[in-house]
Amino acid sequence: xxxxxxxxxxxxxxxxxHRLTKKPDEKAVLLLSDIHKNSVAFLSRYRESGIFDxxxxxxxxxxxxxxxxxxxxxxxxxxxxxxxxxxxxxxxPVDVEKMDEVYLCPDHFPFGWYIIKNKxxxxxxxxxxxxxxxxxxxxxxxxxxxxxxxxxDVLGYFGNNDSAVEILADxxxxxxxxxxxxxxxxxxxxxxxxMPDEQRKRVLSFFGVNGAVGxxxxxxxxxxTQHMANLGIMPLDDQHLLYRLFADYFLSGTHITxxxxxxDIAGRYNEIFGEEATVLPFAMPSELLPYTLDGRLKIAIAAxxxxxxxLGSYSDxxxxxxxRIMEDxxxxxxxxxxxxxxxAIYDGTDKIVTNANEMLFKELSRSERLYLKFxxxxxxxxxxxxxxxxDNLPDSRNIENICNYxxxxxxxxxxIFLNEHNRxxxxxxxxxxxxxxxxxxxxxxxxxxxxxxSEVIYLYSTDEKILSAAEKFQQxxxxxxxxxxxxxxxxxxxxxxxxxxxxxVLEATEARLxxxxxxxxxLDEIIAKQGKRKHK
Length: 536
Description:
Layout: E1 2-6, H1 9-22, E2 28-33, H2 37-41, H3 43-48, E3 54-58, H4 60-72, H5 77-91, E4 101-105, H6 110-117, E5 122-125, H7 135-142, H8 146-150, H9 152-155, E6 164-169, E7 183-185, H10 188-194, H11 197-206, E8 220-224, H12 228-231, H13 236-250, E9 255-259, H14 269-273, E10 277-279, E11 297-302, E12 318-320, H15 325-328, H16 332-345, E13 352-354, H17 358-367, E14 374-376, E15 387-389, H18 396-408, E16 415-417, E17 438-447, E18 452-460, H19 464-471, E19 474-479, E20 484-490, H20 495-535
Helix pairs in contact: 4-5, 5-6, 16-17
């Protein structure tokens, strides 16, 4: 008897495909977790499919919740683990130790804890397509569950322990040069592609797809959503805004198809995109998309998603950001203004260094057919030529270094300050001569109701031609789905804009001075304490 355990829709899909292609003649049981609400909602359909001999629902959410509570009470790792394993043993609907083989998908939830603690041999599916080699991605997701994260070094998740005999993962989607002696190639996309039509129809039917969905045509684009609101990462309105901005900046001129994440039950995409978009069933795995849409996709985009990477052979362009997009999407208008300003004033072919989100710049550049070269430099070690600087600097010393650079050197090209948090990092509160080389660029937005907002980015250069070009710079853009018009221009239009700029600089300077005073006070207190110890 084979036991499969699955949590998410992607995991369930892995178990279905492995069962049909690797273990078709053996008895198999599917154990689903009630942590995943779709497993609860579609349990009857899964049972009626006949793909598994039996399908059980494990009431794992109570165990997971209790582990979180124990962690919040600062219980020890041993206490959390033992308590969870006792709870799992009480509710198991099958005798795991009598199974011939156990397949876990994944191994870092309470049932996995039980398997690893009891040294039961198991086969492990990777968390998502290509992420076996991406520890940073997996760990960033896990950190939201403190109890789970707390036990990581004790148990060794993702097959990194003695009980795991095999890790099934897509070898072609791992990072270059990655090697794992336990890894066996298991590609969802390649298995689906090689399946006989009738067998693939069984898979589609298992997930409730019984016929073609979506729009035909050569200009289809796809948004794969995440469930940020459900995870508490951001409010639902912000989640909607993110995908509206994606549509406006990256999917212009295409018919938009939205495939919600299986847990994105709150998203209202019919409402925010209207009749011009097709919204697919949220419970369908994205890997089945090629068999539900006719023709190729022009663009497939996701905030962060392992699933979108599997669509490479069906899409002309894949856009997949990392977790930085969760904050940086709020500043997309600034990124766009900085990109277009750079294009207007820069005729060089060298790289543009930035401590901002270089992936976002690269994708915007490609969408605007500019193809500028952006290179990351988080510490801003190379600011000799063209540079774009984010406010997201680790500490005030970076600001001092930038200010010292501006007043001590003749910059060959230019520096653009995104100024996302209005910190005005080009000004240290003392050296006002820097303003001779600063030009503000305003980003004014207005909607159909007459509401207006304004943001500012700043250009620094000692080249008078560049400064003159910046003063003449203008750009307009209609953001159809976001519902606003961008009017990007220099400061020359009104005195009120000059006043707003100076007010912002003054506010940032006051905040920085307060920070300096607080740091000095803290340093004085440390010195005073050290003096008292020496005196004693």
